[in-house]
Amino acid sequence: MYCNLNKVIQIALALKAEDTGSGTDDPNEEHARVACKKVLRKVTLEKCEHYQCIYGYLKEHAPYFIGLIKKKRSGKTQLLMCEMQQVISQTRSDDASHLHSMISPYAAPHPDKKIVNPPINARGFKDRLGFNHLELGRLPCPVRNLQGFLEDLSGVRKQLQNGSILVTAQKWPAFLYSGDITGENYDPEKSDEGFL
Length: 196
What we know:
This protein is mainly alpha-helical. The chain contains eight helices and no strands. The radius of gyration is 21 Å and the shape is elongated.
């Protein structure tokens, strides 16, 4: 699972500090509490849960790394975090790069009834794929923006292309959710329901 380790650790530690906050009058602790609240204000509850899950995975699979964080050995921690982030990014890139030629047979929701129109093939032009394709454009669309995409195809497509709606690894694409139109049943309050 792709993640930004700096954010994961920052949010997980802020949540932990918030949970274990004490009522002392120490100005350093008060400054730390204010900083934690500032960090957490920028993150949704859903993201907090996601980051806590990844942090739990790190605790289980990389206890040495968590030990460095707890001991606040910033030099070693930053170096190790940088190396881990590079491996995460490279793995993500390697995992996805070979899928391009295999998308065509799986793109249609019911290939036995109706093929994707306009048809695509492995030698197709890229300017007719992604958000430029009438049917395929909804697949990489962030699931939170899918309803708008279905209601105003050209308007949302322009927003996606000009960057006013960002498509990042942290925003789950619609194709990861079930439904005749992938992601159509997505509920932001229950984001794990329908997740493939």
